[in-house]
Amino acid sequence: MTATAAAHPVWRSGLFVPVNVERFVAKASTRGADVLQIDLEDSIAPSDKDEGRKLLPGVVERLHKEGRADILVRINQPLELAVRDIEAAVLPGVSGLMITKVEGPDHLRLLDELVSRLEEKRGIADRTLRFMVLIEAPGPLTRAHEIARATPRTLGMSLGAEDFATELGGEPNGETMLMPKQQVLHAARAHGLMPMGTIGTVADYSDLDAYMKVVRLSASFGFVGASAIHPTQVPVLNAGFSPAPEAVAKAETIVRMDKEAAAAGRGSWSLDGKMIDIPIVQRAEALLARARAIAAQEARKAA
Q1: pTM for the whole thing?
Q2: What span, in angstroms and rounded, lies between the C-alpha atoms of 11 and 14?
Q3: Which mean pLDDT values do the consecutive 10-residue runs of the chain (303 residues) have?
Q4: Beta strands 13-18 and 274-276: pairing type?
Q5: Which long-range contacts (CB under 8 A, 24 or more apart) does 295-302 make?
Q6: Who contacts 183 (Cβ-Cβ below 8 Å, separation ≥6)?
């Protein structure tokens, strides 16, 4: 059984937080991100990973008590590191694991089994921790649909553009990453998962106006959120992946007028010179549902 949109959390922005950098941890909950991505992987030097695992329970406890964001833990590859990370990360307050460099469906099922055993052992409800899956090489991309349906624990999928481009021997930009990111988007949507990411790359955060254009374009493709490597990206992601007020107003009009048309026995009608039929009404209803979910999320942050 795959996840449905109604069951999805609002994760417009995921801020990476190195587990072993106290000044970043201390301010993490104040940045406005929907989800905090506690990092055991790329931002942690190999010599510091053991210490990072030891710090993780205290960091999770602090951020969970503050209650302003969900918590993911980004784990390492290869498997011997992933197992140690998972043993450290299956904790109360953790919403899920970011699974890096996914190799295929069997890889996910193995990690799923390990997490299930730890949840049971530690008194955590089954499948509390969800998987956010990163495809970061061409081989796994060819199996994106298999990966997407490998385990019900998977909640979302994304393409790791930097690593993927390195594997290709190319550059991670909007043009080179367009096709692979769309492939991940399509696989995620086909299996009821959250498609995460932007059409470009997260490496350059200096031009926020240009970044906003990328985020809004990505939302128009169907992506619902993305990771931030710097706090300045968070408000851009939150705004860019939220319906604009004018879009909400138009959606409300479409839904209202559709009810009026249905009461009059009409299956299609026009608005501003454009025919309105079932797919357009469905998109309007989905937009309003997302707007309500975002409003609830923002109220939670403000509480």
Answers
A1: 0.93
A2: 7
A3: 62 98 97 98 96 98 95 97 98 98 98 98 97 98 98 97 93 91 98 94 75 94 96 97 97 95 86 89 96 93 83
A4: unpaired
A5: 296/10, 297/10, 297/34, 300/67, 300/68, 301/32, 301/68, 301/69
A6: 141, 144
